[in-house]
Fold this sequence. Notes:
Blueprint: H1 14-23, E1 25-26, H2 31-47, E2 53-58, E3 61-67, H3 73-89, H4 93-102, H5 107-110, E4 124-129, E5 133-141, H6 145-164
Parallel strand pairs: 1-4
Antiparallel strand pairs: 2-3, 2-5, 4-5
Helix pairs in contact: 2-6
Amino acid sequence: MEAPDNTPQIVPSIEELEAQQRRLVLPRFTYEDAWALGSLLVELARERQAPVAVDIHRAGQQLFHAALPGSSPDNDAWIDRKRRVVERYGSASYLVGARFRAKGTTFEDSSRLDPDVYAAHGGSFPIDVEGVGVIGAVTVSGLPQLQDHALVVEALERLVEGMRD
């Protein structure tokens, strides 16, 4: 199970999370782009000594996976559950959970989906391609959910910036 986050953090609003998704649409997403994004996530995690696993899926195919020191098989299970939320809803796993919380409930209580199969916890983000739509997901697991989400967003921001230069 992912560790609870005991440090006070600024929780992004639903509007901020939706704005991230609108901003982080890629002009393309090739095998090389998957490698670049996964490698960037590994580099960022190593710099921070983050005990995470990183995964990138596109159209049902795993294009990238890495497990860093301190991660465990549980992280892979969390990755699968968070990724399934992105695949089902087309939105970041953290955003899906936030939408349920905003309604005064939880994903687990109200989604009618098996919590052993789906987890609306932060860390999985849709790979959205201009003119195509959501084609996959990039997922990180091992940190508190808001930090998992923020790490993925940071890497996607860098990737998008590099693609637009």
